Amino acid sequence: MTQVWPYFAADNRGADIRQWLNELDQYDMSNFESFHQAALSIGGDGTLLSLIHENSDCLHLPIFGINRGTCGFLLNSIGSKEELVAALESFERWQIVELQMLRVQMHLRDGSTKEEFAFNDAFFKATRGEIAGIVRGENLPDLEFCGDGIIVSTPQGSTAYNKSAGGSILSLERGMIAITSICSALEPIRLSIRDRAIEVEITRNINQTVFRADRFDTNDCIGATITHDGPIVRLAFLPGYKFEKRRYQPRFK
């Protein structure tokens, strides 16, 4: 039988899954370091992000998400204990999608740096007024932006904040990055590029700017170096799941 380590949403979502797993005593729920087959993420897409960021040591395992949230864009639908058993017994036939995270080096106001990783995106956003800055890359000229902010997104994150700001949905190619301005006062930036590193520098209204990489945020960041060489996340889906097709469907119906 497939040995799994379950990770639950912070609230009570997934209580049915917890009960079913308790009834299936062949599925040990102790520390994931004892097992080498799969992790379960039980909740919403945000629960999956929490698992990735709080338990980076388990990223060598495929992560099988079970939707107990709203959209469940990156998750599987499991509605009964029988479906759960069938899913775990089909482990050898799971479809694995490998997705790379962004490595984000933040340049802080005091001259120090801090590194974070982003599965979806990293962005600067004005908390008041407009911010201005420059985006630099090896394969693009210096680009000025001015407005509410700028987003740098992974392919998997391109369907989220990036899309709502008018950015393009990227194919799941490694090394691709979307750069999209937010409510721009200048010519909008809508780029999809393959570059080793993107530099973003804030040049105006630094004191009214927040920087966020997935769930981490700070008001002390004045620039960032963003590369598409972070950890690999291996998402697992039931046989026949059309991940790429699902990305282009509406998130809410």
Q: Considering DSSP H and I runs of 4 or more, what fraction of the residues is helical?
A: 10-25%
User: Runs with pLDDT <50, length 5+?
Assistant: none
Q: Compute the CA-based radius of gyration.
A: 20 Å
| CATH domain topology of the largest domain | Tumour Suppressor Smad4
What CATH first level of the largest domain would be assigned? Mainly Beta
Q: What count of domains describes the coordinates? A: 2
N- and C-termini, Cα separation: 36 Å
Main sheet attributes: strand count, strand direction, barrel closure: 11 strands, antiparallel
Mean pLDDT, rounded to whole units?
90
CATH level 4 superfamily of the largest domain: Probable inorganic polyphosphate/atp-NAD kinase, domain 2
Structural class determined from secondary elements: mainly beta
Q: State which percent range the strand residues make up.
A: 35-45%
What does this structure look like?
By secondary structure, the protein is mainly beta. It has two domains: about 5-100 and about 230-245, 3-Layer(aba) Sandwich (Rossmann fold), CATH 3.40.50.10330; about 100-225, Tumour Suppressor Smad4. About 15% of the residues lie in helices and about 40% in strands. It contains five helices and 16 strands. It has helices at about 15-25, 45-55, 80-90, 160-165, 245, and strands at about 5-10, 40-45, 65, 95-100, 100-110, 115-120, 120-125, 130-135, 140-155, 175-185, 190-195, 200-205, 210-215, 215-220, 220-225, 230-235. Strands 5, 6, 7, 8, 9, 10, 11, 12, 13, 14 and 15 form an eleven-stranded antiparallel sheet that branches. Strands 1-2-3-16-4 form a five-stranded mixed sheet, covered by helices on one side. Strand 8 and strand 9 (about 140-155) form a beta hairpin. The radius of gyration is 20 Å and the shape is elongated.
